Amino acid sequence: MAALCLRKLIHQATRNETSCISKYLDIPLVQTMQKTTFSQALMVMAGAKRRLMFVPTKSFCTTEEAEKKPEGKKKKTNAQRPFGSIGRKIPQQIIHVISENGNSLGNMHRGDVIRLMNERDLKLVPLCENEDPPVYRLMTGKQIHEEQLKRREKQKASSKAGPVQLKELTFSAAIAKHDLETKISQIQQWIDKKHHVRISVQQRNVADGPEKMLAFFDQIVKTMPEKATYLSQPRVIKEGKSTCVLRHMSEKEVNEYRKMEKEKQTDIRNKESGNETESSELQ
């Protein structure tokens, strides 16, 4: 009798549970649960509740992620490319063209540039692609080859060149002529190696002004034309002693120096010709 009552209670509890579950779950699940025991039904119901649990999550949006994503490093557009022709694939529509002789042809359409290349049998070489419009030059194959050789030599020279060293020399202004020539030859060797040279000179007479010492240093610099120049101008460091630092001249300074020398020579010739004309008129 007790067993019968227990079975009725289990059956009624199972029926109540399945009616409760049917409100939240589909009918097939309820049907399967009706065929199981009460303990199995409880396990199924617990699993169903776990599956139906709602978890607050953040909405997915690709635009937000793109906005929050930090910008990466931009690719360098002005990366150095090897010097040479780009063929006939000109990326820009309008470019500034320089002729093979170095003359500016102005802004041209790439179609006109290609036609000019075909007519003169020339090649197009980029010079400044970052300009607006970019600058290109028309060159022959020989010109391109010579320019490539020059750049290789410069690259080798820059790689071989070591750090700049500072050499020092100290002597008296009363030095003998032969000893001074020896000192100057040593300075020339250092200057040729692109070193800096500090020269310290003890004045012959303390009463002599800085003008005489400046003339003495200028005399040393004049023995090395197109090579040495002042890194720091002559100055008095203490009573009776002056110093200066020499360095090697750059290519730009050498060109300016040559230009000034030519102008001086032309002025001298003009003065001489003027004096000759005046003397002939007087006669």
Structure summary:
The protein has helices at 2-22, 27-34, 38-51, 62-68, 110-120, 141-160, 177-192, 210-222, 251-282, and strands spanning 94-98, 104-109, 123-128, 135-139, 166-172, 196-202, 228-238, 241-248.
Shape category:
flat
**Average pLDDT number:** 76
Radius of gyration: 46 Å
Query: By helix and strand content, what is the structural category?
Result: alpha/beta
Uncertain segments: 20-36, 48-52, 59-79
Biggest sheet, in brief?
A: 4 strands, mixed
Q: Secondary-structure element order, as H and E?
A: HHHHEEHEEHEHEHEEH
Q: Strands of the largest sheet, in order across it?
A: 2-1-4-3
What is the strand tally?
8
Distance between the termini: 167 Å
The amount of beta strand, in percent, is 15-25%
What's the tally of helices? Answer: 9
Describe this entry's structure for a reader:
This protein has 283 residues and is of the alpha/beta class. It is built from 9 helices and 8 strands. The strands form 2 sheets. The protein has a 4-stranded mixed sheet. It has a 4-stranded mixed sheet with strand order 5-6-8-7, with helices on one face. Strand 3 and strand 4 form a beta hairpin. About 15% of the residues have low confidence.
List the helices and strands and how they pair.
Elements (H helix, E strand, L loop, with lengths): L1 H21 L4 H8 L3 H14 L10 H7 L25 E5 L5 E6 H11 L2 E6 L6 E5 L1 H20 L5 E7 L4 H16 L3 E7 L7 H13 L5 E11 L2 E8 L2 H32 L1
Parallel strand pairs: 1-4, 5-6
Antiparallel strand pairs: 1-2, 3-4, 6-8, 7-8
Helix pairs in contact: 1-2, 1-3
